[in-house]
């Protein structure tokens, strides 16, 4: 069987990738990260499917790990040959196995076929995926191997019926697990646990014999406690009857005391009411009237406070009597506007007035620009011309270098063309001569009677002559093109020089007109000239603004008008700050107006206060009272006494109603005649006796409950003992049966191992021979220190003792694993040889053994189709 071709749609990082396999060794030598291991994994997955699909980690779960990086269809195609017939298998993978698609096609007919199912690898190689990865598929850093059930079955030619060998490890593991779980010596063994439980049950049953005697003793004490509790209950009932009788007397006595207390309170309230009526001289005011007059009084207080606020001082009264004229608001606003205009004009003149330094600067600039002043655009134009002239100069220098280069190249080209022309002339002469000779020969052949051959010779002769002529014309054309490029460059330089001369003439003309001083840099001089021009224009404008005759006349008119206005009101401003003077005049007018309004409000509040005071005075006199200086306090005292009187009257009526209701309900004569019974105990002493009895009864209750609980616990313990006895008998019987089962399982395991060893011993020597063969190919030496046991486990003899190969170095372990895998493959597939997949298995070998590995590859490629992946040329 062999691979023919594979195509990957998308698998891991590989996308739209195709590889054609050949017989022998197919080497894929690419750098790290190219996708070699991904390609090897693709071949394995196409045969056996994904590994570790139940893992959550995407690095362990292959379905997630190789999910396409660039999305798209997940899967591909693999073409292979088996038993002389070629097939194509296509697989498409989803996010889970249920979404996968599988199609097998016969490449000869291109029709689907059913020679293999989705278990392609197992059906093709007759082994499971684990056995495939231990033999045919050798991955990097995983060269070691061990013999699986599938490998044993394939070597023993039992691939068609593997129930007897493929499940050996499963059966052996189950037997081991059962023996360990039942072990009588291990703490976790069920037999050991059963024996421990039997010992524990026997001890607990012996200790449970005393429970019966304890239960009888506690039951006797419980009955005695019940009798004592009943006796205490009878005594408590008798005391409760006596307490009830005494309680009735106490209730009647309390009612009598309550009645006498109510009569005393009623007499006290009558006396208090008489004293209150004497305070009011027999006229008790109404609460609503008192509250109304108190409100009037409070209103009068508020009015009096307002009077105090509006009352004028002596100075304010004098100001009100002064005959100061009031100013009209409209006229005052008009004068405000004139004063603001005046101040604005004076500020403008002060701001635009030139200083001494500025005047000297203006005089200097006037002399400088006496014959005229350049425009801003003209100066900018000269700046641009200077910039263009400098750029043109730089460009001319670059083009000069280019021209010299072209001239040098042209000289070299002319010399070369001259040589070529001389050689071409020679070739042309030869070619012309050859063409003429061919033509003459053609005519001669025609004359001899060979028309076709003669015609061919004539055509060839004419073609040779034409070729010679065309070759010469082509060379002449190339030379002409090269001369044209230099001409264009010289023409551009002439145009650029003309433009530079124009710019320089413009600059020279401007500098001559405006006197560029020697030694000054042109750009700096142009900036200085612009600054002078701008300063001159600004100073001229300020001089014009400061010396306006119209503004001067307006200032004089405004000053005269404002002076006349202030003269009308007897006000003469000390300075010409008319705005401040207007503010002062407006303030005086507003102050006088406020004083007049304040005096008016005072008179209004005074009249209102006198009316309120008269109303309160008349009310107090109606109550036969003399009005005092502060009537609000007098009214508050009246209200307080009135409230006290109302409160006493309500309390008196409440007590009167309570006495009436009590007399209707109770037998008053009988209550008044009630006497204390003689020889009776107090309720307190009876309560103390009852408390003592209750406490003693509670103690008995607790004692009985304690005995009952002990009996219940003992009964449960006794029930437990009886259950233990039953458990002990059943457990002893079950343990004997399981012990026999344990011995039978041990015998079964021994027999199974003997049978397996007998079976595998048949092909141990062929596998060992294959190992020696491949070890000799790879190392060039014999493997004298290795041996193989009946379980096909390889060991190395070191220090005269067999050792596990795990003690060897990583490189030696890889070497032994590779040889062992090939030996197993050779034993498993004697007829139809499978292909081999090697994913850089020699990475851990040293230099000498790497060379042997290359020989090893060459040898096995003679017998097997090998797909070999590596990342280094030394292992190619």
Automatic annotation (TrEMBL):
Pfam hit, one: AAA_23
Assigned keywords, A-Z: Coiled coil, Membrane, Transmembrane, Transmembrane helix
InterPro entries reported in the protein's UniProt record:
P-loop_NTPase, Rad50/SbcC_AAA
Q: What are the transmembrane regions?
A: 430-449, 455-473
Q: Where is the signal peptide?
A: none
Domain called Rad50/SbcC-type AAA: residue spans = 5-243
Q: Does the keyword Membrane apply?
A: yes
The coiled-coil segments of this chain are: 215-242, 479-546, 595-745
Q: Which Gene3D superfamilies match?
A: P-loop containing nucleotide triphosphate hydrolases
- UniProt superkingdom: Bacteria
What the entry lists under PANTHER family is as follows:
DOUBLE-STRAND BREAK REPAIR RAD50 ATPASE, PUTATIVE-RELATED
The name this protein goes by in its record? Rad50/SbcC-type AAA domain-containing protein
Q: What is the lineage of its organism?
A: Bacteria, Bacillati, Bacillota, Clostridia, Lachnospirales
């Amino acid at each position: 069987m062999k691979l023919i071709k594979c195509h990957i749609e998308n698998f891991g990082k590989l996308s739209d990738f195709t590889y054609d396999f050949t017989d022998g060794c197919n080497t894929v030598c690419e750098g790290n990260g190219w996708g070699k291991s991904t390609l090897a994994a693709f071949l394995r997955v196409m045969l056996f499917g994904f590994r570790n699909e139940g893992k959550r980690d995407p690095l362990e779960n292959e379905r997630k790990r190789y999910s396409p990086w660039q999305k798209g269809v997940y899967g591909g195609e693999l073409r292979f040959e088996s038993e002389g017939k070629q097939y194509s298998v296509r697989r498409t993978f989803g996010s889970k196995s249920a979404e996968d698609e599988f199609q097998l096609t016969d490449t000869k007919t291109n029709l689907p076929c059913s020679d293999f199912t989705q278990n392609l690898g197992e059906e093709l190689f007759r082994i499971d995926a684990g056995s495939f990865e231990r033999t045919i598929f050798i991955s990097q850093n995983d060269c070691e191997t061990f013999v699986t059930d599938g490998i044993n079955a394939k070597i023993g030619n039992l691939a068609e019926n593997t129930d007897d060998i493929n499940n050996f490890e499963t059966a052996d593991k189950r037997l081991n697990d059962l023996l360990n779980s039942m072990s009588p010596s291990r703490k976790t063994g069920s037999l050991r646990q059963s024996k421990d439980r039997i010992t524990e049950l026997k001890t607990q049953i012996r200790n449970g014999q005393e429970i019966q005697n304890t239960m009888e003793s506690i039951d006797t004490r419980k009955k005695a406690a019940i009798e004592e509790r009943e006796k205490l209950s009878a005594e408590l009932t008798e005391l409760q009857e006596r307490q009830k009788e005494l309680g009735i007397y106490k209730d009647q006595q309390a009612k009598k005391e309550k009645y006498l207390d109510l009569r005393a309170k009623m007499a006290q309230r009558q006396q208090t009411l008489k004293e209150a009526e004497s305070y009011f001289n027999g006229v008790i005011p109404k609460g609503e009237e008192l509250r109304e007059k108190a409100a009037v009084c409070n209103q009068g207080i508020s009015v009096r406070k307002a009077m105090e606020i509006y009352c004028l001082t002596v100075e304010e009264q004098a100001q009100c009597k002064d005959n100061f004229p009031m100013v009209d608001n409209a006229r005052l606003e008009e004068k405000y506007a004139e004063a603001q205009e005046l101040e604005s004009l004076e500020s403008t003149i002060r701001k635009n007035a030139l200083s001494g330094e500025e005047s000297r600067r203006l005089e200097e600039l006037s002399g400088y620009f006496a014959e005229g002043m350049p425009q801003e655009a003209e100066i900018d134009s000269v700046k641009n011309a200077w910039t263009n002239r400098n750029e043109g100069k730089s460009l001319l220098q670059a083009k000069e270098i280019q021209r010299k280069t072209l001239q040098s190249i042209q000289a070299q080209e002319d010399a070369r063309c001259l040589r070529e022309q001389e050689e071409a002339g020679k070739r042309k002469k030869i070619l012309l001569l050859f063409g003429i000779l061919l033509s003459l020969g053609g005519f001669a052949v025609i004359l001899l009677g060979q028309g076709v051959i003669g015609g061919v010779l004539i055509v060839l002769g004419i073609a040779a002559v034409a070729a010679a002529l065309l070759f010469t014309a082509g060379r002449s054309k190339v030379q002409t093109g090269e001369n044209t490029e230099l001409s264009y460059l010289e023409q551009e330089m002439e145009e650029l020089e003309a433009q530079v001369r124009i710019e320089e003439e413009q600059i020279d003309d401007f500098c001559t007109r405006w006197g560029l001083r020697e030694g000054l840099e042109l750009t700096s001089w142009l900036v200085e000239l612009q600054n002078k021009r701008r300063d001159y224009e600004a100073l001229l404008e300020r001089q014009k603004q400061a010396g306006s005759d119209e503004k001067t006349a307006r200032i004089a008119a405004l000053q005269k008008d404002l002076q006349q206005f202030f003269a009308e009101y007897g006000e003469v401003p000390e300075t010409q700050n008319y705005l401040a003077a207007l503010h002062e005049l407006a303030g005086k007018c507003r102050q006088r107006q406020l004083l007049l309004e304040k005096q008016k409000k005072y008179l209004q509040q005074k009249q209102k206060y006198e009316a309120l005071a008269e109303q309160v005075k008349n009310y107090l006199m109606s109550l036969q009272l003399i009005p005092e200086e502060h009537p609000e306090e007098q009214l508050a005292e009246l209200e307080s006494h009135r409230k006290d009187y109302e409160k006493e009257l309500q309390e008196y009526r409440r007590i009167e109603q309570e006495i009436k209701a009590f007399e209707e309900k109770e037998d008053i004569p009988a209550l008044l005649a009630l006497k204390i019974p003689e020889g009776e105990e107090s309720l307190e002493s009876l309560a103390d006796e009852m408390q003592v009895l209750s406490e003693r009864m509670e103690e008995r209750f607790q004692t009985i409950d304690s005995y009952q609980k002990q009996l219940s616990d003992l009964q449960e313990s006794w029930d437990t003992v009886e259950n233990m006895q039953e458990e002990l008998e059943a457990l002893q019987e079950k343990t004997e049966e399981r012990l026999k089962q344990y011995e039978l399982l041990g015998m079964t395991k021994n027999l199974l191992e003997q049978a397996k060893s007998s079976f595998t011993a048949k092909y141990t020597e062929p596998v060992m021979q294959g190992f020696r063969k491949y070890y000799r190919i790879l190392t060039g030496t014999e493997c004298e220190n290795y041996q193989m046991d009946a379980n096909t486990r390889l060991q190395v003899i070191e220090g005269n003792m067999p050792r596990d190969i795990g003690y060897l170095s990583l490189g030696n372990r890889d070497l032994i694993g590779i040889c062992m895998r090939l030996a197993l493959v050779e034993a498993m597939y004697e007829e139809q040889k499978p292909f081999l997949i090697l994913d850089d298995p020699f990475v851990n070998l040293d230099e000498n053994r790497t060379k042997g590995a290359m020989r090893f590859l060459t040898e096995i490629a003679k017998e097997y189709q090998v797909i070999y992946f590596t990342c280094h040329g030394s292992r190619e």
